[in-house]
What we know:
The radius of gyration is 19 Å and the shape is flat. The protein has helices at residues 3-26, 31-53, 63-81, 91-107, 119-153, 160-163, 167-195, 205-228, 232-260, and strands at 54-55, 58-60, 114-115. By secondary structure, it is mostly helical. It starts with a helix and ends with a helix. The protein has a three-stranded antiparallel sheet with strand order 1-2-3.
Amino acid sequence: MNTTLSLLAIALYAGATVLLWQEIRQGHARYKLALTLGVAAMFCHGTASYVGMFTTQGMNISLTEMSILISWFVVVITLISGMLRPLLNILLMIFPFTAAILGITLLADSPAKLIQHPGGVMLHIALSVLSYSVLTMAALQAIVLAVQEYRLKHHQLNGILKALPPLVTMEAMLFELVLIGFILLTLSIGTGLFYVDDIFAQHLAHKSAFSMMAWACFGILLIGRHQLGWRSRTAIQWTLAAFALLLLGYVGSKFVLEVLLNRI
Length: 264
């Protein structure tokens, strides 16, 4: 991880957040400038991730570097998706979230975990990162939807919530993210079972178990949506519960192994 680039990305994300807040609260025409700062932060963030992950000794897949990469993908996917759907206001939540991730990784740098495996394992890692990124977006979307629904019921729809799409649109976007994330997670688990030789020797048993439980929860949510018409509150609860399992399995396992037990 490049400290200078990470600090610059944090500053740019913070600046973009302030401008977006002023745009929504005070009506200042600074939306394009905020996006410009956000894109600049994204490039600094991505470069810092690339420098930290790809070394002369191999690819570093430590908790720190993977967290940086996943948060970068969240920003990239949101910016690209915002060209097709009204997601850009969600950046007011994603920019500070990403800056916080970068700040935490700077303070709690985990030991390097280098791999030099063939393409199959790399495919599994790529699919895992993409699925975690999309499902992180789904979890953030669920949180925003929960706040939006609560404020709407209590007639407190003001500030940023006024700038968000209607509740029905937000709900539809949540299920789209869950579906895409579920497909990617299915492929990730499938490639993991095929390419990873010994999950016990590599300390992957807990991660695999929690990932399967999260996969089952997301699957039940999608079936419930299609067969039973599950909507906002139920969708929010299942999304956050499934994401918590995924977070516990991946981040929790890597934190215990790499930080607490110092096992590489």
